[in-house]
Amino acid sequence: MEPKKNPQLEVKRNSLLYFFVGMTLVLFMAYMALEWKTYYQDNSWDVGELKVDEDLIEDATILKLKIPEPPKPKIQAPPKIEITDDDEDIVEDVIKPSETDQDAEIADVESIDVAEDIIPEEIPFILIENAPVFPGCENEKTEKDKRDCFQENMLKHIRKNFRYPDIAKEMGLQGRVSVIFTVQKDGSIGDVRLKGPHESLEKEAARIISKLPKLQPGKQRGTPVKVPYSIPITFKLN
């Protein structure tokens, strides 16, 4: 059966093509309208003109300046040398050599004064020749044994007199108190310095050190000297 309408005469046959062609022309015209530029042939309207009166133009004045001449250097006359006669003859001193001669007498050893060594007033515990001696350590044979005995008795003294402060227990305070004291020349304890986490712990450490017995003083070359000693006291709650 043949169709009644001719497909070549269909109206919607090329509608999509016509639509794209029309859109292209519209976009092209819009682009040309946006990019269109115009130019002014005469631009004298924005250029300023300045007219200067000829009467105001002055000729540059030429000045002649006279430069002063530089000062002439002063030439001093040479000093006059006068020759005078010698009034008296000058006798030159004879310089004697400082080296000893083989004929020089040798002094006796007993007549020569020997300078005494200056012993410091205070020497640390680890550097002193004879460390302080704790009571009960006098019979130790060597110096090392006496030092070990001193430290051992110090720990025993701290454990024996140790009391935990009540206020520190209530507040839950604990820590280490660094104690530094000096064994004086007479064996007494002095110059106590404390540093700890709380004042109550420092007071307890000071009380323990104050109960130390009188010690035998430290000696350097047989002379009593002051000896600083440091020891930590630890406060710890169980």
UniProtKB/TrEMBL annotation:
<keyword id="KW-1133">Transmembrane helix</keyword>
<dbReference type="InterPro" id="IPR003538">
    <property type="entry name" value="TonB"/>
</dbReference>
<protein>
    <submittedName>
        <fullName>TonB family protein</fullName>
    </submittedName>
</protein>
<keyword id="KW-0997">Cell inner membrane</keyword>
<dbReference type="InterPro" id="IPR037682">
    <property type="entry name" value="TonB_C"/>
</dbReference>
<dbReference type="InterPro" id="IPR051045">
    <property type="entry name" value="TonB-dependent_transducer"/>
</dbReference>
<keyword id="KW-0813">Transport</keyword>
<keyword id="KW-0653">Protein transport</keyword>
<feature type="domain" description="TonB C-terminal">
    <location>
        <begin position="149"/>
        <end position="238"/>
    </location>
</feature>
<feature type="transmembrane region" description="Helical">
    <location>
        <begin position="16"/>
        <end position="34"/>
    </location>
</feature>
<dbReference type="InterPro" id="IPR006260">
    <property type="entry name" value="TonB/TolA_C"/>
</dbReference>
<keyword id="KW-1003">Cell membrane</keyword>
<comment type="similarity">
    <text>Belongs to the TonB family.</text>
</comment>
<dbReference type="Pfam" id="PF03544">
    <property type="entry name" value="TonB_C"/>
</dbReference>
<keyword id="KW-0472">Membrane</keyword>
<keyword id="KW-0812">Transmembrane</keyword>
